[in-house]
Design a protein that fits this description.
Helices cover about 10% and strands about 40% of the residues. By secondary structure, it is mainly β. Strands 1, 3, 4, 6, 9, 11 and 12 form a seven-stranded antiparallel sheet that branches. Strand 7 and strand 8 form a beta hairpin. The protein is globular, with a radius of gyration of 23 Å.
Length: about 210
């Protein structure tokens, strides 16, 4: 609690308090996907390889979760050595975000495969972009953070028309120098986002006028 004892300083503090308050931005963390209730299968994996090419194995596991509170299941992707090719993992239901997103967080497990993961997002202009999540040159669980303002413009382009971002899936890209006999193990756990309300323009010009 801030206490100002000097009367003069109290007056100055109260005059400038609205300016301090105006700069305060309140963010909240929301859950995007907990990989517990969604239905994932090999049908969610898309690849441009020839038909009959081996595909990764995908499952929800309660025995292999990230060391975070409340996690009950994780999404586990086992990539046999014959299936270590680029692929896109589509979410069963796209995740639509209408608020301003400061950051997306997701725990990732890697078996040190030296590949990379990207978040695939459809922008308000219906463009598809790949936003880097992490390089997979580590072993174990790691909480990865993605700062979206560094990659995407989230401002509403049309006056009084709400825009949104849509997360449609994950893209895996192995490195060319990966050992051909190496099996890759990946896992994802609770994906969250740090969001706030968007700044909205005044609806009426009269609101700009002082009383």
């Amino acid at each position: 609690m801030i206490v100002v004892r000097n009367p003069f300083l109290s007056t100055v503090f109260l005059l400038f308090l609205p300016l301090f308050s105006a700069d305060v931005v309140i963010y909240k963390e929301i859950l995007l996907e907990n990989f517990e209730t969604s239905s994932f299968s090999v049908e969610n994996i898309k690849s441009r390889l020839e038909k009959g090419t081996p595909l990764p194995e995908i499952s929800l596991s309660s025995n292999f979760t990230a060391p975070i509170p409340g996690s009950q299941k994780s999404l586990v992707i086992r990539i046999p050595k014959k299936a270590n090719f680029p692929f896109f993992l589509a979410f069963p239901e796209p995740i639509v975000l209408t608020q301003f997103v400061k950051e997306i967080r997701v725990p990732v497990y890697s078996s040190q495969s030296n590949g990379s993961l990207s978040l695939v997002i459809e922008t308000q202009n219906f463009e598809t972009k790949q936003i880097p999540i992490a390089s997979l040159n580590f072993r174990g669980w790691k909480e990865c953070s993605i700062s979206l303002p560094n990659f995407l413009d989230q401002g509403d382009r049309v006056f009084l028309q709400e825009s949104h971002l849509t997360i449609i899936g994950i893209y895996y890209l192995p490195r060319e120098d990966n050992p051909t006999n190496q099996e890759v193990l990946l896992a994802l756990d609770d994906m969250t986002a740090l969001v706030r309300d968007k700044y909205r323009p005044l609806r009426k010009k009269e609101q700009l006028l002082e009383d």
